[in-house]
Amino acid sequence: MKRQTYLQAVNERVIVFDGAFGTFVQDLDLGPDDFGGAALEGCNEMLCLTRPDVIRSMHDAFLKVGVDAIETASFGSFSTVLTEYAIPEKSYELNVAAASLAREMASSYESDGRSRFVAGSMGPGTKLPSLGHIGFAELRDSYVEQARGLLDGGSDLFLIETCMDLLQIKAAMQACRQAMKIVGREIPIQVQVTMETTGRMLVGTEIGAALVALEAMRPDVIGINCATGPAEMQEHLRHLSQHSPSPISVLPNAGLPSVLNGRTHYDLTPAELASYHKHHVEDLGIGIVGGCCGTTPEHLRQVVEAVRNLTPAPRNYNFEPALTSLYSSVPIVQDNSFLIIGERTNTNGSRAFRDLMLASDWDGCTKMGAEQIREGAHVIDVCVDYVGRDGTVDMDSIASRFGSQVSVPLVFDSTEPQVMEAGLVHSGGRGVLNSANLEDGEAPGSRLDRVFTLARDYGCAVICLLIDERGQARDVEWKMEVAHRLNKIATERYGLRSSDLIFDALTFPIGTGDKDLRRDGLATMEAIRRIKEEIPGAFTTLGLSNVSFGLKPALRQVLNSVFLAECTAVGLDSAIVHASKILPLSRIPEEQKEVCRALIYDEEIEGENALNVLLRLFEDVKSVDAVKEDRSDWTLERVLKQRIIDAERDGLTDDLNTAMAQGIPPLDIINNILLEGMKVVGELFGSGQMQLPFVLQSAETMKTAVAHLEPFMEKVDGQTSKGRLVLATVKGDVHDIGKNLVDIICTNNGYEVVNMGIKVSIADMIAKVQEVNADALGMSGLLVKSTLIMRENLQELNAVGLSEIPVILGGAALTRTYVEKDLREVYDGRVFYGRDAFEGLYTLDKIMAIKRDGVVDPDFGRIPSGRVLPDRNKAEREEVELPHRSPDVATDNPVFTPPFLGSKVVKGLAIDDIAAYINETAIFRNQWQFRPENGETDEQFKDRLRPLLREQLSNAKTSGVLLPQVVYGYFPVNADGTDLVVYTDDTRTTEQCRFHYPRQREEPFLCIADFFRSVESGEKDYAAFHIVTMGNAVSEMAAELFEQNKYQDYLILHGLGVEMAEALAEYWHHRIRSEWGFVEEDGPSLHGLFRQQYRGGRYSWGYPACPELEDNATVAALLEAGRLGIEVSEETGWQYQPEQTTSAIICHHPRAKYFVAR
Fold it and tell me: Apex CA 1068: angle with CA 1063 and CA 1069, to 5°?
């Protein structure tokens, strides 16, 4: 009977792979002689030659328990790895031996009629091309030798596994295909990526990006193996299950490793691995399972028993065509937009970029690439073609940097295919080739042949120009003839899909007045419409600027914008444009739009040529650069002061040197000139004319100036600053953004600030105040609890006789009345409310003026002031008869059964998916503290700041500073009065923990516990809990920026971390509603979600309906949050560490909305 092929088996039944090679060998306790000598000890692959009996016994152990496929012992048998053992020449021999041994053992088990398969194992090696460790060609060539050996030894498939770098995968896949051509035998290719505990591949790739890049390379199977156990793989597998067109494999480790008695140990039991794989098959539709590190024959025996008779669940996958960078993917079809291909990094269209390239200013080139993301580009066109230069050298220099430092996909734009390839060998993601055409025909070796070959070999999309041997297609029928011909060649000859093709219908300028060209724009639009209709799956693009070539800049901007809108309406998917120079139609005057449309459609306006009307409309419109203020008659003192106000650092040190040369002492420059500038900055901020981000720029400029002047100052005994402030966040509070802003403003206004950090006890504050002889003490805190600690701290200062020290208090939970009335009645000294950093500064100025001038003002800071608020009568409150349960909350609502009970860890979430849930008002106004200017509408205000948000998200992807992770779960619960009881399981016999919630003391007497069925009812109910975090890296990076005096960057990054954590909470709440079965009740818009337009509610501890912060620790224990490195205790003030972490309980009851319990 003919053997079944691997792919036939995959399509017919569940395939079980074997387990760990390394673990098997480790347990044998082999010595140097077993490997062929001490120099080769640890090279497990050598055992194929020195101890083939060991390899046979390993294969036998797994085949005995019923696996379908065994991996060859060849994981590191290629020259770049073997060089480390000085045996690179043994690559082919080792692979033949490894495959032959596996084939021998597999064949010996086929007498039962079931085929056993040999998977030729190809590992990642020790050098990754995306990190610059090794060249692409060198790595590919070493894989060719390995693949030849595996083929000749009898492998049934190639298994490119434990992949950490997309470029490494491309090199290996190309090598396999070259080897198959050489040997003359075709076998399938299975590719498996490794997702680290961070949730991304080692180089930072998200699973969505990996799928897009790999699917374009056309492997036969896509999967995941190594690095983690199955628990950490679930989100990645979920993504593959929902989106992968290819069969899926999963070969996890036996959990996460630990070291036990000096050896690596894995905790996942065989039964647990079998249970996970049963879930993978039955629920996710995965048909290929097995094991990696730590998995033994017993693990696989139980897996075989669990899945052998299962049928994988059908998968209705949704794979949308996309491009990807090394980090994340970008759909070609954009919601509410077209795909913007940035055109500025093109030597033919950008003199600035060309000059940077010619000067070998690679950092400047990279910066220009990143700037286009800020402007809104989804993809970046890179063209280095320039007469007289070797484009491959320039492309190598550019692409090697863009590949890892630019977070969006790239278009490799050149007339020379070898220049495109010079870029492709640095691009792990899925890019675009620009371009292919039929100008020199379609024969082997033609430009078309070379470009389509590159697209196939590197998994690219291709821009296809509608040009044939006759030239650029002008009329619609000619354009369509070329488009169909290109599509036929690409799909039938090169194995590309129509969805890999992006047709540029091309257009000539329509503003030249040339009669022959007037209808070219119209022909282009009609061709776009027909391409979308007649070539299903294909995409369209347009080099937009050509349509307006020759016209003045202001007119070009308007015509380009109107033409783009018309093309988009007929199906244009993308355009190569300068993103910031496209105007929304709403901002173009109606008359200009009408005339532009008339020109595009070749219509007259009241009998006159539309072009003439358009030229007349723009006759007096000029593009004028901003006029720079003439400062030639300004004094040097005025120039320096204005530099601080404008945050103008270019040329600052020259002006400071000139001032010193004129005999002005450095200290006088600071105190009499620069500080006057900071005083104006404070006044502008106070009057609302300057926003905080710009204040921080001024502070950075001040810091730069002082640092330059300090070496020239005379050493003076005693204090030279205006005063000394000790600053601290109170014990139990970890929030420090407000305190640090006070530090920045006061430091750069002449004060010496001793910043003690967070969670500072009053004893430590007192010690520091005495040590440095402070003039004032500042305390900060965000939490309501912190206001009580501040009161206690003031009482302690009284008790130790330190009430002569003035105290400034600030924080979100404080009010002026509480500080300047209630706390002044507590403190024997002066105490002040600091609403913001500048109020703190002004208070310090007054305190120091009193101290300096000796003016006695006994009332300043001591007399209670503020509104007198009526006290709540406690006795009256206690007399209110509270119901056992709010009568306003229904008890007959449907109870939704959760998808599972217990908790799960989720990693590897896409930054872009989370960013879609950012509350722009919160981040722009509250975190970054920008405000609308010059009568901006809210939408115009947000439009102005969205480029900054895009830039920050792009930076976060390339730096890895945001690591979104979630631990969440569903639990059986019941209400017990105002408590919520959480049970260990659905038998509800054992209480795991309970939460207490306050009840409102007035109608409708709500309490969170009311939203669940009561214990007395005997009915089942469930609650969901989650903890989401952005990780510690963002806090660490923000702290570094603060220390580096990069104040604005500090504010921006800190705010991004805060709002991304909130966005993740919103995103995960949506996921929970989806899993729980009532997401269809959501409102229609994201804005509506921020207003709770969904079923149920989400409550975080520390807010009025659930104020007990200590419950954060209960949630952390319930969800085992330590698995994400999250800590919470009395030491942290019952707040989570890392700081950008938040938790919540999710209720499904429709009445569960925000309320205040008091």
Answer: 100
Quote the CA–CA distance of 120 and 140 in Å, as a whole number.
16
Give per-residue pLDDT as tens, 668-684: 898 889 988 888 888 88
Residue 329, classed as helix, strand or coil, is strand
The pLDDT value given to residue 649 = 86
The token pair that represents 515 in the structure block: 């009669």
Q: Which tops the pLDDT comparison, 148 or 1132?
A: 148
Q: What is the DSSP string of 811-862?
A: -TT--HHIIIIIITTT-SS-EEE-SSHHHHHHHHHHHHHHHHHT---TTTTT
**Core vs surface per residue 968-990: b (16+ CB within 10 A) or e:** bbbbbbbbbbbebbbbeeeebee
Cis before 864 (ω within 30): no
Which residues lie across from 468 on neighbouring strands?
471
| pTM (2 d.p.) | 0.82
User: How far is 583 from 875, CA to CA, in rounded Å?
Assistant: 65
Q: Which of the 8 DSSP states describes residue 45?
A: G
Beta strand 257-260 with 69-71: parallel, antiparallel or unpaired? unpaired
Handedness of CA 864, 865, 870, 871 (dihedral sign): negative
Q: Residue 1026: its pLDDT value, please?
A: 98
- β pairing state of 288-289 and 322-324: unpaired
pLDDT confidence tier of residue 130, bands split at 50, 70 and 90: very high
Query: For the ranges 112-116, 182-186, 546-550, 800-804, which has the lowest average pLDDT?
Result: 546-550
Rounded Cα distance, 323 and 331, in Å:
6
Tell me if the bond preceding 1129 is cis, omega within 30° of 0: no
Closest CA relative to residue 297, chosen from 14, 115, 24: 24
State which amino acid sits at residue 360. S
> CA distances (Å), 577 to each of 353, 418, 557, 561, 568, in order?
15, 25, 11, 10, 14
| Residue 403, φ and ψ in degrees, nearest 5 | -55, -35
- Lowest pLDDT segment from 378-382, 668-672, 856-860, 977-981: 856-860
Cβ atoms of 18 and 291 closer than 8 Å: yes
Contact indicator for 739, 753 with CB cutoff of 8 Å: no
Residue 368, helix vs strand vs coil: helix
- Helix/strand/coil for 907: strand
**Rounded to the nearest 5°, which phi and psi values hold at 855?**
-75, 125
Query: What is the spatial distance between Cα 1122 and Cα 1113, in angstroms, rounded to a whole number?
Result: 11
Can you give the three-state secondary structure of 153-200, one letter per residue?
A: CCCCEEEEEEECCHHHHHHHHHHHHHHHHHHCCCCCEEEEECCCCCCC
pLDDT (tens digit per residue) in 12-66: 999 999 999 888 888 888 889 989 999 998 899 999 999 999 999 999 999 999 9
Hey, how many other C-beta atoms are within 10 angstroms of the C-beta on 949?
20
CA distances 370 to 314, 431, 951, Å, are 42, 16, 8
When pLDDT is cut at 50, 70 and 90, the band that residue 835 belongs to is confident
pLDDT above 50 (res 1043): yes
Q: Rg of the chain over CA atoms, in angstroms?
A: 34
SS3 386: coil
In angstroms, rounded to a whole number, what is the distance separating the alpha carbons of residues 844 and 95?
Answer: 76
For the chain, counts of helices (H) and of strands (E): 41, 36
Neighbours of 1125 (CB within 10 A): 15
Which H or E run includes 701? helix 692-709
- The answer to whether the CB of 528 falls within 8 A of the CB of 495 is no
Q: By three-state DSSP, how is residue 2 classified?
A: coil
Distance between CA atoms of residues 1025 and 214, nearest Å: 35
Mapped onto helix, strand or coil, the DSSP state of residue 981 is strand
10 Å CB burial of residue 53 (0-12, 13-18, 19+) is exposed
| 172, two tokens | 């290996």
